[in-house]
Amino acid sequence: MKIALKLFMVIAIFTFGATFGHYKYYPYTLMQGLKLSLTNGLARKPKNFQSCSLPITSNLEENSHLFIGHSAGSPLTAKYDDFIAPNVLNLIKKYGDKFKSITFTGDVFSVPALSKWEKLESLKVSNQDIFVSPGNHDIRRPDSRDIFKLSPFGKKAYPFVNTIHGFPVVIDDSESSNWSLSNETISMINQLENDTIFVARHNMPISDLVDFANSKPDNLSSLVNVENFVLDFSENVNYFWIIGDSGAWKELPRLSCMKYKNHSFILNGIGGVEGDSVIIFNRGQLYQYIL
């Protein structure tokens, strides 16, 4: 009996670890953050990149557009029933009528549920759009993916294009393509006729930026470096990659901007940390807004 009990416990522990490790779901994210804290894993700007910055604004104008990464907030305090992070919810409730659109760049909730997606949809004010580029918390597990598909946000076919102030924004599903850009996304971007293109997605599309991510890809070797990445795109277009898989841990920057040639990578995420920031777009300019 004792041998059978021990065998059962070993199998249960292994199954638990393998399942949550594979789906990178809580408590995997908690352990990842603790590891980052213990090793003081501060992300550093990769060589060959230039630093760029977004001007800080405290003024929210009418018809602005809002981008929010990792709106689930701190993994250290996450609870099963939590909605979006309180500082994000307060911003939307207080100034929601200022935003023509709100784009969540993944990991919207720590633990998704259909009722939460419906509640998120109910935050819309008149003539406002809410878009979601899903992350691992949102669709990695089969049950979470099924829930997302039933939600108001899961009925769209990814990738798709939104337009803000005349600029195209490609809303991508990077989780389904294992972080890399899918051929469909590359084709869609290259068919757009504009000298400035935005891409909103959850995961880092290049290996150079993985140290800034809240989690790590299943297969790092599947990601190309930035030198090869840019070969798929025009040299005459300014690309802005708005990425939401960052900032969950205090050891990571609240917002990062790094540029390689004509590609600017803007990384952002909410972590329940002082200085938590979101991205505002208005009048042709991206801004950092500190919550």
Class from secondary-structure proportions: alpha/beta
Strand order of the largest sheet: 1-9-10-8-7-6-5
- What fold name stands as the CATH topology? Purple Acid Phosphatase, chain A, domain 2
Averaged pLDDT: 89
Helix percentage range: 25-40%
What name goes with the CATH superfamily? Metallo-dependent phosphatases
Q: How big a fraction of the residues is strand?
A: 15-25%
TL;DR of this structure?
This protein is α/β, with parallel strands linked by helices and 291 residues long. The protein has helices at 2-23, 28-38, 86-95, 114-122, 136-139, 142-150, 183-191, 226-229, and strands at 50-51, 64-68, 99-104, 129-132, 160-164, 167-171, 196-201, 238-243, 255-260, 263-268, 277-282, 285-290.
Could you characterize the architecture of this molecule?
The chain has 291 residues and is α/β, with parallel strands linked by helices. It has one domain (2-290): 4-Layer Sandwich (Purple Acid Phosphatase, chain A, domain 2), CATH 3.60.21. It has eight helices and twelve strands. The chain has helices at residues 2-23, 28-38, 86-95, 114-122, 136-139, 142-150, 183-191, 226-229; strands at 50-51, 64-68, 99-104, 129-132, 160-164, 167-171, 196-201, 238-243, 255-260, 263-268, 277-282, 285-290. The strands form two sheets. The chain has a seven-stranded mixed β-sheet with strand order 1-9-10-8-7-6-5, covered by helices on one side. It has a five-stranded mixed β-sheet with strand order 4-3-2-11-12, with no helix packed on it. The protein starts with a helix and ends with a strand. Mean pLDDT is 89; it is low at 12-25 and 28-41.
